[in-house]
Amino acid sequence: DGIYPMGGYFVLSSGSKMYEAKAVILATGAKASNLIPGEQQLLGNGVSYCATCDGNFYKGKTIAVISDNKESEEEVDFLAELAEKVYFCPSYKTNYSRENVIRLPGFVKSVNGERHADGITLSDGSIIAVDGVFFLKQTVSADVLLDGLEMNNGSVAVNRDMSTSVKGCFACGDCTGRPYQIAKAIGEGNVALHSAVAYLAENKGKKE
């Protein structure tokens, strides 16, 4: 999943669905995304978080899919329709099966590759060659969701009006940093909402 600035509006992907919005408020919380070695370094170079966005690049190829939630199996189906072979590594119990999908035991320790992902290393030390790796997670860090988002010590950097470094995007709550308190989250949410409404009013009818 991801958020993509399109110049004057955003496209948001969620599973197999796409949405458009003129403003976005991030309220993702502060849950750690548990990155593995090679995941962030090779993002956009063989590593992806969006099946519907990047799946077509892997038609007839071999890919690995790492998932932490059963709801993502719809996306696994989508990728299996495109790829010749899918190595599937779920971190939950599942009976998912498909002719060209091989379910892997254990977990993935790292994504391998210099300039482009070319394999994965499993918990038993074995290495499997792949052309790309998809992570289908319930949560990812905010800067992964939205490219170009300025961060500050792992939190989304915001101004007093809760605006971020990306025009039209606002953030509030635990994702903006300490203190992790309900009162702070509620207050920031109120400010972010008013700022987003003001932004929409100011930019009504504008074309970029």
Please describe what this structure looks like.
There is one protein chain. With 208 residues, the protein is α/β, with parallel strands linked by helices. The chain has helices at residues 51-54, 73-82, 142-145, 182-202; strands at residues 2-5, 10-14, 17-21, 24-26, 47-48, 62-67, 85-90, 101-103, 108-112, 119-122, 127-129, 132-136, 151-152, 155-156, 169-171. Strands 5-12-6-7-8 form a five-stranded parallel β-sheet, covered by helices on one side. Strands 1-2-3 form a three-stranded antiparallel β-sheet, with no helix packed on it. The longest helix has 21 residues, at 182-202. It starts with a strand and ends in a 6-residue tail after the last helix.
Task: Identify the notable features of this structure and list them briefly.
208 residues, alpha/beta, three-stranded antiparallel sheet, elongated
